[in-house]
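Chain particulars:
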Amino acid sequence: MAQYQYPSGIFEQAVREFSKLPGIGTKTALRLVLHLLKQPKEDLKTLGQTLIDLSEKIHYCTSCNNISEEEICPICSDAGRDHSTVCLVENVRDVLAIENTRQYHGIYHVLGCIISPMEGIGPSDMQISSLEKKLQQGIIKEIILALPATVEGDTTGFYLYRRFQEYHVTMTTLARGIPAGGDLEYTDEVTLARSIMNRTPFQAGSQ
């Protein structure tokens, strides 16, 4: 950011913080801060308080790792959901995408990442301890592997299939209406809904 001569240290700090966001460079951060300075002070205070609330009041569900304001998220605490069916996803964005289809009525488990040796991410980096407790208790009857249609997604699916075999649960995967290399969050709702409804048994080595 040395190319800019900032009029204020506070202004410079604001630009620096915005530029830390994904896909936001220095020029875009500068435009955002200048835009915010034109807004009413009450709007800026509301934005600031919202960011503070995000930091202090949002947690990860202790049961599924979804974001929540409570210890247990609304989906896990919903007695009307099918708690014997768990949809395994990479991140919270995938939960939102599947929920938008309104075709799935089970619960979720957010892994937090998928296996990617190129990025130094291994099996131990995934959040699966709470899921294994449910498997040990015999609560789960079906696990849906709703993972990206990529080499990393398939590698993760194969690992989890092998790891969970001892629990004798049904393991299925989304029907391949999702394009190869695609992420769930970018898949249209109709295609994603059909992929969930027409899910197929997971077969190691066939992905």
